[in-house]
Structures are given as C-alpha cells and as structure tokens.
C-alpha cells in the first residue's frame, strides 16, 4: 500500500509500504477513505515532536471502512464505515475509566506519533472497540473526519475547560483550524460575543462567516488594547489560546476580566511567562491539556442534527496520492487561503 512516511526533521516521502496486519485480537484494519493534514503534522515535520521516528506513517484524522477485525473485536465487522479517534485506548484502565484516554496505561497512542497513522491506504487500529465510532448512515464524512481530532480538541481543551456560559464574552486567539473549531463549538453554549484574534485578514473574514461577532488583527496594533476597547475596558470571560506562542499566551493573560478563564489549547514549543503577580487579584483560572476524544460521540450527534457543520472549514480537496501537493498548500495555508485540506481515497 501507499503511505506518507516521516524521514526525520523536514523530510517525508509518499512510499510503498507493507499493508498493516492484525497483531492483537483487539485490532482492526481500516481502509482509509478520507484523511486530513493537521497543524500538528507540521510540528512533527519540523522536528518538534522527537517521539516520532524515521519510518512512521503520519496522520491522525480519518474515516474509512473496516477491512478486517481480530477475534477480540465485538463492536465492529468488515464493511462497517467508521470514524477513527486520534487516540487509541483500552477502555478499562484507571485513566480510561476517567475518560482520560490519551493517558491510557495500555494504549493511549496517538496515531501518527508512536504508532502508524491515517495518511495511508490502510491503518491498524489497536483496541478497535474503544477507538472507533460507527458512522451513522447518511452523515457527511467530510464533517466527521475532523471529529478525529480538531473538534474534540477545541471542545474539550478550549470550550469545556474554559467553561463557556450563555451570554459571556469569549476571545479566541488564532483563527487556524483549531481556533475555527473552537469558534463553532463555543456557539453550542450561546455566548453573547466571540472575538476572533489573528494576524491574517482572510482568516478573520472567514471567522465572521462562521459566527465571530468581532475580529481583531494583532498585526495592526496592540491586540490587548483592541480587545479592551471592544469590551468597554472590561475584558473577556474566556480566552482560548489556539496558537502556541508565548506572545499569544500573554495576550490571553492580559484580556481576562475578574473570574475569567484561560483555556490553553496551543502546543507550546517554548516556555511561557506566567504573570501570577497580575492574575491572582483577578481570580482567574488557567487550564491546558491533551485531547482525550471523550466528546466524540456527543459531537457525532451535533453534526447529525446540523447544530455544527465542521465541513464549512474544508477549503481544499486532493486525491490521497497527491498528498505531497496537499502538504505544500497546507504549509502555506494563509497565503493559499487554505483552512482544512481533505485527502480522498474513495
Ligand atoms: P495553525 O498554525 O493553522 O493556526 C494558528 C493561527 O494562529 C494562524 O491562523 C496564525 O495566523 C495565528 N497566529 C500566529 N501568530 C499569531 C499572533 N501573534 N497573534 C494572533 N494570531 C496568531 O494551527 P492549528 O492547526 O489551528 O492549531 C493551533 C494549535 O493547537 C497548535 O499549536 C496545535 O499544535 C495545537 N493543538 C493542540 C491539541 C491539544 O490536544 N491540546 C490538539 C491539536 C492541535
Ligand atoms: Zn491534530
Ligand atoms: Zn486504558
């Protein structure tokens, strides 16, 4: 089969690779029909994730059709259409019982990191019963493929950790796919205002179409001052950090009103400054974390009901065997006016 393989920092190849086989009774082999490129794949390619080694198949979002199951798999059979969680988990250990699947003591592997991922014709899914979800008939698979990672990430680590409440004022720093998914999932909780902050006017304009009520371009003046002006000097109830730089974490710390919550989603390659000397008096709460995908079943229902439409984020589509071109577009996303890039193997 063909797969996109990591070859060390800055290097990757679309190569012929052995098709995965069942290794444990709880495994399933899935034929990928749609996969994506995620911002984290670019972090891996840049060498920011040393755990990913030479030869690893990348990719952690995907939908497909079950090809084969091990003798211990009871919830799925060949021919089933499935959504793949970016995290595989045993479902039985202490962490899984707390729905902290990414910390599963027997699995908890993120696809495309410590085990082979979804940017391939086939993928092996360990613990298939607790790592796959049935696709309800008639549901748009382009919408569902982003429920493997960016939608649960945004909902769990951004919106739920941020405790978004009806009528509140929310700021989201970063209008990339994760920030946009935060924008769409935050609306499930009816905030009064959502202020989107980015450096790119096209992305900000797109965010208006997806429901942002205000936008701030942080390359055109001080972002903190602009947010304060928009909120009559009060600040925001929730600041979601969806970039991963010290400067954007700092913006979030400065725009919170008393009782505010800072929900950090961005993966930070460098230490950030924590301004406790300013934060304590405002009674703020700071959270961060790694996606568990425990909200995926709920998100499947919200997609089915039409309450959120993740497919709005798709700007580019490529056949899977043109994945190298797709990476070029995604790498230059703001210039290419790209948001989410989908790869087809239908
Ligand atoms: P992205 O790079 O596509 O988007 C980031 C956005 O931030 C871009 O639109 C960029 O213009 C904007 N930006 C950059 N500097 C800025 C600044 N100074 N002020 C305002 N905006 C600025 O990334 P993405 O794919 O949307 O992912 C966002 C982050 O979420 C990444 O760090 C990613 O690794 C992380 N992530 C975390 C988890 C988790 O489990 N916590 C899961 C998936 C992704
Ligand atoms: Zn991802
Ligand atoms: Zn477990």
From TrEMBL:
<dbReference type="InterPro" id="IPR036291">
    <property type="entry name" value="NAD(P)-bd_dom_sf"/>
</dbReference>
<dbReference type="Pfam" id="PF08240">
    <property type="entry name" value="ADH_N"/>
</dbReference>
<dbReference type="InterPro" id="IPR020843">
    <property type="entry name" value="ER"/>
</dbReference>
<dbReference type="Pfam" id="PF00107">
    <property type="entry name" value="ADH_zinc_N"/>
</dbReference>
<keyword id="KW-0862">Zinc</keyword>
<dbReference type="InterPro" id="IPR002328">
    <property type="entry name" value="ADH_Zn_CS"/>
</dbReference>
<dbReference type="InterPro" id="IPR011032">
    <property type="entry name" value="GroES-like_sf"/>
</dbReference>
<keyword id="KW-0479">Metal-binding</keyword>
<dbReference type="InterPro" id="IPR013154">
    <property type="entry name" value="ADH-like_N"/>
</dbReference>
<comment type="similarity">
    <text>Belongs to the zinc-containing alcohol dehydrogenase family.</text>
</comment>
<protein>
    <submittedName>
        <fullName>Zinc-dependent alcohol dehydrogenase family protein</fullName>
    </submittedName>
</protein>
<feature type="domain" description="Enoyl reductase (ER)">
    <location>
        <begin position="8"/>
        <end position="343"/>
    </location>
</feature>
<dbReference type="InterPro" id="IPR013149">
    <property type="entry name" value="ADH-like_C"/>
</dbReference>
<keyword id="KW-0560">Oxidoreductase</keyword>
